[in-house]
Every structure is written in C-alpha cells, then in structure tokens.
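Teaching note: in complex prediction, the entire set of molecules is handled at once rather than each chain in isolation. The prompt given to students was simply: 'Predict the structure of this complex.' The entities are:
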Amino acid sequence: MREHAKIRAAAERTLASGIFPAELSDGRPVALACTPDGLRIRGPETGVRIAYTSIRSIEGSPGRLRLTSERSDLTVAGPPELIQALHVELRTRGHLDAGPGQIPDMVRAAVGLEEDYLLYTIFGPFYELHAALLGEGADLGRPVTEPDAAVFQVGLTEVQRHLDQVAHVLPAFIRQRDALLVTGPEPAWLKSDETALRAALAPVQRAAAEVGQLAAQVQRLIDLDPAELPKVSYGGAAVSLGAAALVNPVFAVSGLSQAYAARSQGDQRRNQATAQSARGWATVLDRWNALVGTGLPVLSYVITENVFPLRWSAARRLAETAALPGVARRLAALDVLRRYPSGPGVPFRRGEIADHLRAARDRLPAPRFADF
Amino acid sequence: MALFSSQFDQARRFSAAYAGEPGETRFWTPATVGVVAGLGAAALIADDPDQTAAFGGGGDAQDDGPWSAHSDWSDASIGGDGDFMYFSDGDVSFTVG
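The expected output is the structure of the full assembly:
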C-alpha cells in the first residue's frame, strides 16, 4: 500500500502544510493546523488557538513536541516525521513577522546553518554506520574494536551509494532549492554556481575510493569465511520499522536502518575466524577507524571551505529577490533538521554528527610539521 | 587561532540570532531580533522572556468564531467554526469534530 503513488503524494502534502493529526500527552486525539494567526489545536473538548508570538519554547524529540506558551504547556505526540514537519511549520510561521529589511540577514542565517546541513548530509551516513558498529550507547569518538561482517557489508554498500548521490545529485539539488527561492525565471548565475559546487564537492571522491576499497576487502573476508555471511533479514527489518513507514510512506526504510536492525536483532556472530581472516579484519577496522577518526574531519573541512564562498555569494544574490515565505521556510527547515535524527534507530541527532565532525577536526594535531 | 577555522563562522552569528544554538528551545520571532548590526543583539532580547512576551499580543485564546486559511505552498485550505474543522487539499477534504 505504501508504494502507491497517490498515498505517497498525499503524505507529502500533509507533511508540507498540515493538518497534522496527533495526540496530546494524555492520549486525546487532536488535529493541529497552522493558520496565519496562530496554531490551532482541535479535538474532542479541545479547541485552542496559540498565537505564534506567545510561544515561549518548543522542545522537540523524535515523536514528541513540547510547546509552552504564556498560558499553556502542551505535549504533542505523533510519528517522528510528522512532529518534525509540525516543528518546521511552527518555526516558519514564527519567522513570518520579519520586516523586509531582515530578509538578507535571514538568508545569511540560513547559510550559517547550511554548514551543519552539508556536514551531516555528506558525512552523516559514515557516522551512523560507525554508531551501528559501536552498538548501544555509542560514543562517536571511540574506535570500533569488534568487526560485525553483516553491518559492515550492508553499511558500506549504502555509504557508497550515498556518496554517488552526493557527487552527482547534490549540486543540482542545491541549485533547484535556490531556484525555488527566486521569484521569476531561473537566473543564469545559478547554473554556473552548480558547476562550481560540483567542483567544490569533488574531494568527496577520496572518501568514496577508500570506502570502495574497504567494501572489496570486507567482501573478500566474507568469501574467505562463508560462516560469516551476513544473514540480514530485510523483511524483519522492514517489519520492525514498519510502523513509521506505514504511517508515513514518504519515509522509506533506508539501508542504514536495516544495518541497525541487523545489529539489534542480536545475531552477534563472534569472529571465530582463522588467523588469516582475523588479520584481515584488523586491517579493515584500522582503516575504518582512521577514516572516521581523522580522514573525514579533515575532508569535511576541505569541503566546507570550498563551498562557503559559493554559498555566501549566492546568499547575497538571493537576498535581492527572495520573498519572505520561502526564506522563512528554508531557515526553519535547516534549523529543525539538525534537531532530529535522520531516521528511526539512529541514536544521534543530525546536529550532533555535525558537532562531532567539527570537534574532531579541531582536535587534530599536526605533528609532521616543524614549528616555525 | 584554530588550525582549521571555518569561514562559515562569519554566518554563524546570524544563525545564532535567528535560530539559536542547536540545543536552543526558546522560541522567538524575527520582530524581536531587530537589526543584527552588532553581536548578540538577539541573544540579549531573547534572554529576557518577559520582553519577548511584550512583543506577543494575542496569547492563547479559546478558539471560536468561523475562520479559514489557505496554504502558501499548496492548494490546501483549512477552516472551521466552533468545534468543527475542515481540511481540503484540492483533491480530497475531510472534517474533524
């Protein structure tokens, strides 16, 4: 059912503008709608309007949104993607009282958030896989010490696919998003920016090459010891994540979520491998830990420094023509995205992954160079 | 001076003014930000919840009287009167209450 195009389109429409069906913390069903004069919450014996300017705080977590205003304190529960969409909508509406003179600053604010966006969009899957390999209570700074063939194989394939998308689709995607902000026909500078952005993202290919080699090595090790063949249950994973996917078919079950399910399904096949495969796995782990520990933080720095001048000049040009509703929505979406994890089973919010990359980058020493 | 200092830091003060830090749960609107000519103007205003509230007006209200709104981004429109609420997205419509 969730494959049906019309159901997917309807779910997308719901997430784009509401009405949002949800529950209050005591289980009462309510419908939430954002109107120009406030958030309306309606259900049996409930009818409240909360003006955006009277909202004091919004605290979101996957599946739950706590909203306090001058007179009320509400907690709304619902599917994670719906809560996230409601959060975006509330932030967007809140931004709409900006004066026309504030639009350039708001576009610049969005560029500031784009750093986080780029960091987790490009490198997030690496750290989500790293967290899956580390298991429960993962600390992203720790190295992986136990190989898990199934998670490695599924995860590396997914990361490879992801990096292809980054190289080939992301620049066009960013251009299209910018084009939607501009009123009127698409200006020519957007197209030349896309080419420049593709060149700026080219260093990602270095990570792609490393991942390709790792995937090949993992495949050889699995061939060496067929008992380790991953028995990932795709059906089981889809069922265990099915509630979210059913309620909202827009969010397909990603390969990485399946990697998590493979881990949590408890088939912790210990490595009873021969000495040869043990050495092989040690090499794989060393390379992986070096990649996520030092390789990617430096690479992320190269990428953000390459991209910034392009985005900063794009912001200047966008600020001249962009209309407030589009800018408000972009700022809200970028702000809210970083506050939630990218999918069910992922233990880190997107922003935490970006923060981790920045922190790892700042801790890197430069011992090869003599001081001067 | 950090070894890897990011150019994005130039834009971060704008982000902090309009969206806050990642863990920020307070809600404020651009009208309370003012012009971010200097540093932390927004942070100053938003630090004082009473002042944020002063810009508010409105506040919570029991929701009565007919109302409706049309989406800026799609064909969707919503509206209602008293305990009744309807929603239409151009193709389909449904009612609550």
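Point out the following to students. Chain A is about 60% helix and 10% strand. Residues 101-227+274-362 of chain A form one domain.
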